[in-house]
Predict the structure.
Amino acid sequence: MKAIEFDKSGIDNIKIVDTDLKGNGIKVKVIKAGLNPLDYNLIAGNVVYNVKPMPHIPGSEVMGIAMEDGKNIRKGDRVIVYNRIFDNACDMCYSGNEHLCYNGGIWGVITNGGYSEYIKIDEQNLFRVPEPIDDNTAVSIGIGALTSYRSLKRSKPKINDKILIYGAGNTGIFTVQLAHKMGLDVYVYSRNKELEELGIKVIDSIPEDFLADIIINPLGGKLFGDSIKHLRRKGKIVTYGVLTGRMADLDIAQLYTNELEITGSTGGTRKDLSELLSILEKSNFRLPMYKEYSLWDIKDALYAFKERVNGRIVLNL
Ligand SMILES: [Zn+2]
């Protein structure tokens, strides 16, 4: 089968290869793959992940068609991949936190991923996609939507809570719409004015006196420390990324005198993914697209990924 492979990091080291389909589990014909910061950084060598095996097939967000029956999955089902590898044998797995498995990691990082014509993957990592969800939305669930859904759950929102979301990119675009559906009073710090059509308040600068009950800020760096001052007393800030840097200056006095909470969130559990599929099945969800590419034109897609302002990049087979 054809696959995308690299043996050392760097976009220009990407090759199209002919390789054998390896691994155990259900065979899936890949239809679409997402391009996320995770994939970009993995290929460009911007992260400290222990990538294996080498040479490596990247791709951590995939939708496709099951080629054979499993216990629950049937041949012909439209499926997406839950992209955490886990052992079902540690305290994190036993407590329903398989995304934090001590012996696990991200599919496509600690294993070969899905930028290939076919994959083989354990049935516990496959989810059937309900009919109303279109292919481009489906392929954006495994990373973008799941990360955003869990980050909202981690903030324990109450109806009418005022929420400020930093950015409307790959994950933010889901966070704003899911928060809106959850009945929150949504503000997004972004230049993407199209979101106003959905009833979401878009602000391109945050007024000094702006206060929110919840802040979702995956941008990291200096913006993280600054955003704390926009929390109301008892407010919560959730992070799942460090786009502008891993280190932040925090006013610790502001933190305790206002009883603020800082919460981390990463990926999601299989339970989160099931809940999310039911929400998306019933809701009219808008997925802004930037562009679709053939998987075999992935170099063009990777260069475009850096330049794009907003919208998803999806790779087709
Ligand atoms: Zn485990």
Notes: Residues 86-87, 89-90, 92-93, 101-104 surround zinc ion (CB under 6 Å). The chain has a mean pLDDT of 94. DSSP finds nine helices and 17 strands in the chain.
